[in-house]
C-alpha cells in the first residue's frame, strides 16, 4: 500500500476538516460555509462515506490532500508531509540524507527555542530582559505564544547545551546558531539578545531574530539567522503561521515592518498581521501571501526609510495583482508605539487606510513645488507613469481628473502624455488563467449532470439506462465521457464501487465525479426509491428528446444543402433519417 493510500485510510476527512471549520450534519453528509470564498449560505459539502468534499459555490473540491493544500496554502509534497505526520505514517524520500539533515536541523532549532524560552522565564541572568518585556507591555501569554527567549551573554552557552543534546558542531553551524571566529573556535552569534523565533508557514522554527540587550553596542540592534538549508529570510513572513486563517477569513492582511509590531498588534486583537522582519519585501513573500488573500494594508514607519519601503512594496504587490492600501502612521511612531500609547487610534487608522494611488499622489506632491513648471512636469511624469498602468478605465479616468485639477493642466494634455508613455512600453503577455472562465450552465447540461449523479448513487439503474440512452446522445461532453467510463466499468465488474471507479479516472474527471456524487446526495435527501427511479427515467427521456430535436434541426439543414446540390440519393437518405427520428419523437 502506498503512503498516500495509507494516509487516506488512517484519516477521516470529516475529523480533519472540522479542525479548521465548523460543520453541521446534513443527512448522510456534513455542510459548512466554504473557507475558500465568502458566502452566507453553506454550500460546502463533505461526504464521510466517499471521503471527499466539494463546494457548490466556488467549485473547489477533492480529498484530504486537496483540502490541506488549499487551507494551508501549500503544494502537494508539503500537504503529504503534514498529513503523514498527522496519520503517523512514515514517508520514504528519494534523497533520505537531505531529508534527515533538514529534520535534524528543525529538531535542533526546536530544542534551542525551548532552551532560550526557559532561560528567559526562569534564569536570574534574564531578569532584566523580563523587566524590559514588561515595560513593552507584552503579557506572559504573548511571551509564551511566541516562545520569546533570551540567549545568555556567553560565547558558548547555547552551543554547549546543543552539544549535550547530541548535536554536532557542524549541525549547530549549519542551523545558523554558531559562527567560527578568528581562532577557529565556534561562538554563539545571538549571545546577549532577546530571541524571536522565526517560524515557517507550518509553525516550524526555521531561524531567529535577535535584539541586542547591551546598552552600549556598535553593531546592529537586530540580526537575523543567516541563510541555511531550512531558512531563507526572503521566503518567510513573520507571524503568517498564526495569522493565516484570520487573513483568509477577513480576506486582507496587515503588513508591518518589525516582529514586535506584529506581536503587539496580535496581542491587541488585530490578528491578521504579518511582518517582513526588517528586510525588504520580496517576490517570494508576495507569492506566499497571495495564497491567502488578494488584499493588503501596508503599515510601515512614517520616516523616510518607511516611505521608500512603502513605495517599493506597493509597486511589487500591485504588479503582482494585489489590492493595496496604506495606513498613515503618525511621524516618529511605529505600530508597536502607537498600539501601546493609543490602541483606538491604531484601529481608526486601519479603518481609514487609503488607496495606494492616493498615497503615491501625496508622497510625490509633498516633495515638489507645483507652482514651478519644472516640478509640475516632474509630478506629471511620475504620476502618469503609474496611472497609465491602471487596468480599470474608470479608475484611470478618476486619477487623471484628480491630477488635472491639482496641476491645473487639461485632461486632454495628460491623456496625450499617457498615450506617449504607453507607446514606449512593450505590452506584457497576458497570463493564462489556470481556471477556465465560468459559463452559465445550460438546461441540457443540468439534466445530464443530474442523471449521471443519480446513476453514480444508484448504480443498479445503469444497465437499464444504457439500453435507452447512448453516450453520443448526451450533449455535454464531460458528462458524455464520464457516462462512457461508467458503462465500461460496470459491464466489466457487474457492480459499482465508487472509490475503485474513481481511481481509474484522470484527475480532472475525479474532481467532476466528486462533484456529481455529492450533487446526488443533495438532490435526493427526501425522495423515496420509487420517486428516484421515476426521476431517472424522466431525465433519460428529456435527454433523448433533446437529442432527437437537435438531430432533426441538423437534418433539415443537411437536406436543404443536398437539394441545392440536386443530390437526390443524399436527399432520400437524409429524409429517411428525418422520418425515423420524427417517429421516435412521437413516443415523447
Structure characterization notes:
The structure is a single chain. The chain has 5 domains: 85 residues, Zinc finger, CHC2-typedomain (DNA Primase, Chain A); 136 residues, DNA primase, catalytic core, N-terminal domain (DNA primase DNAg catalytic core, N-terminal domain); 122 residues, Dna Topoisomerase Vi A Subunit, Chain: A, domain 2 (3-Layer(aba) Sandwich); 57 residues; 143 residues, DNAb Helicase, Chain A. The protein is of the alpha+beta class. Helices cover 55% and strands 10% of the residues. About 2% of the residues have low confidence. The strands form 4 sheets. The chain has a 5-stranded antiparallel β-sheet, with helices on both faces. It is built from 26 helices and 16 strands. The longest helix has 36 residues.
Largest sheet: 5 strands, antiparallel
Strand order of the largest sheet: 1-2-3-4-5
The global form is globular
Mean pLDDT: 88
Distance between the termini: 51 Å
Which value, in Å, is the CA radius of gyration? 32 Å
What's the CATH class of the largest domain, please?
Answer: Mainly Alpha
**What CATH architecture of the largest domain do you see?**
Orthogonal Bundle
Tally of alpha and pi helices: 26
Report the CATH topology name of the largest domain: DNAb Helicase, Chain A
Total beta strands: 16
Number of individual domains? 5
Instruction: Determine the structural class based on helices, strands and strand pairing.
Output: alpha+beta
Q: List low-confidence stretches.
A: 427-440
Strand fraction band? Answer: 5-15%
Determine the fraction of residues in helical runs and give it as a percent range. Answer: 40-55%
CATH superfamily of the largest domain: DNAb Helicase, Chain A
| Oligomerization status of the protein chains | single chain
Amino acid at each position: 500500500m502506498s503512503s498516500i493510500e495509507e494516509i487516506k485510510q488512517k484519516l477521516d476527512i470529516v475529523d480533519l476538516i472540522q479542525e479548521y471549520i465548523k460543520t453541521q450534519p446534513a443527512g448522510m453528509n456534513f455542510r459548512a460555509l466554504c473557507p475558500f470564498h465568502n458566502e452566507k449560505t453553506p454550500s460546502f459539502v463533505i461526504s464521510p462515506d466517499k471521503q471527499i468534499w466539494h463546494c457548490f459555490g466556488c467549485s473547489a473540491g477533492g480529498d484530504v490532500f486537496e483540502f490541506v493544500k488549499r487551507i494551508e496554502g501549500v503544494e502537494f509534497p508539503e500537504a503529504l508531509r503534514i498529513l503523514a505526520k498527522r496519520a503517523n505514517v512514515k514517508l520514504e524520500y528519494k534523497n533520505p540524507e537531505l531529508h534527515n539533515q533538514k529534520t535534524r536541523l528543525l529538531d535542533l532549532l526546536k530544542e534551542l527555542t525551548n532552551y532560550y524560552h526557559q532561560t528567559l522565564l526562569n534564569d536570574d541572568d534574564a531578569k532584566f530582559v523580563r523587566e524590559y518585556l514588561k515595560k513593552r507591555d507584552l503579557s506572559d501569554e504573548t511571551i509564551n505564544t511566541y516562545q520569546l527567549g533570551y540567549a545568555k551573554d556567553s560565547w558558548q552557552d547555547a552551543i554547549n547545551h546543543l552539544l549535550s543534546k547530541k548535536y554536532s558542531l557542524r549541525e549547530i553551524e549549519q542551523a545558523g546558531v554558531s559562527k567560527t571566529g578568528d581562532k577557529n573556535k565556534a561562538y554563539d552569534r545571538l549571545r546577549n539578545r532577546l530571541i524571536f523565533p522565526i517560524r515557517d508557514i507550518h509553525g516550524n522554527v526555521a531561524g531567529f531574530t535577535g535584539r541586542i540587550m547591551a546598552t552600549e553596542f556598535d553593531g546592529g540592534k537586530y540580526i537575523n539567522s543567516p541563510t541555511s538549508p531550512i531558512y531563507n529570510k526572503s521566503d518567510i513572513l513573520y507571524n503568517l503561521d498564526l495569522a493565516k486563517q484570520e487573513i483568509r477569513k477577513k480576506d486582507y492582511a496587515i503588513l508591518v515592518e518589525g516582529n514586535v509590531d506584529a506581536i503587539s498588534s496580535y496581542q491587541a486583537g488585530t490578528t491578521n498581521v504579518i511582518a517582513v522582519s526588517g528586510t525588504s519585501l520580496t517576490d517570494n513573500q508576495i507569492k506566499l501571501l497571495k495564497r491567502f488573500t488578494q488584499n493588503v494594508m501596508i503599515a510601515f514607519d512614517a520616516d523616510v526609510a518607511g516611505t521608500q519601503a512603502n513605495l517599493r512594496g506597493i509597486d511589487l504587490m500591485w504588479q503582482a495583482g494585489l489590492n493595496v492600501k496604506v495606513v498613515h502612521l503618525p511621524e516618529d511612531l511605529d505600530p508597536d508605539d502607537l498600539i501601546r500609547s493609543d490602541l483606538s487610534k491604531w484601529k481608526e487608522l486601519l479603518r481609514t487606510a487609503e488607496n495606494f494611488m492616493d498615497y503615491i499622489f501625496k508622497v510625490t506632491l509633498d516633495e515638489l513645488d507645483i507652482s514651478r513648471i519644472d516640478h509640475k512636469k516632474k509630478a506629471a511624469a511620475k504620476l502618469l507613469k503609474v496611472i497609465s498602468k491602471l487596468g480599470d478605465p474608470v479608475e484611470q479616468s478618476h486619477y487623471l481628473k484628480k491630477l488635472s485639477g491639482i496641476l491645473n493642466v487639461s485632461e486632454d494634455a495628460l491623456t496625450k502624455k499617457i498615450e506617449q508613455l504607453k507607446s514606449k512600453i512593450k505590452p506584457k503577455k497576458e497570463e493564462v488563467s489556470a481556471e477556465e472562465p465560468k459559463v452559465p450552465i445550460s438546461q441540457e447540461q443540468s439534466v445530464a449532470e443530474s442523471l449521471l449523479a443519480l446513476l453514480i448513487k444508484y448504480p443498479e439503474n445503469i444497465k437499464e439506462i444504457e439500453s435507452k440512452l447512448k453516450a453520443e446522445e448526451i450533449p455535454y461532453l464531460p458528462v458524455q465521457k464520464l457516462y462512457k467510463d461508467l458503462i465500461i466499468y460496470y459491464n466489466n465488474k457487474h457492480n459499482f464501487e465508487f472509490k475503485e471507479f474513481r481511481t481509474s479516472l484522470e484527475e480532472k474527471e475525479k474532481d467532476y465525479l466528486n462533484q456529481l456524487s455529492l450533487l446526488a446526495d443533495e438532490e435526493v435527501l427526501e425522495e423515496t426509491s420509487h420517486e428516484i427511479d421515476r426521476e431517472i427515467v424522466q431525465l433519460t427521456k428529456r435527454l433523448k428528446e433533446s437529442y432527437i430535436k437537435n438531430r432533426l434541426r441538423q437534418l433539415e439543414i443537411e437536406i436543404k444543402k443536398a437539394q441545392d446540390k440536386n443530390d437526390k440519393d443524399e436527399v432520400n437518405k437524409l429524409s429517411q433519417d428525418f422520418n425515423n427520428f420524427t417517429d421516435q419523437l412521437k413516443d415523447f
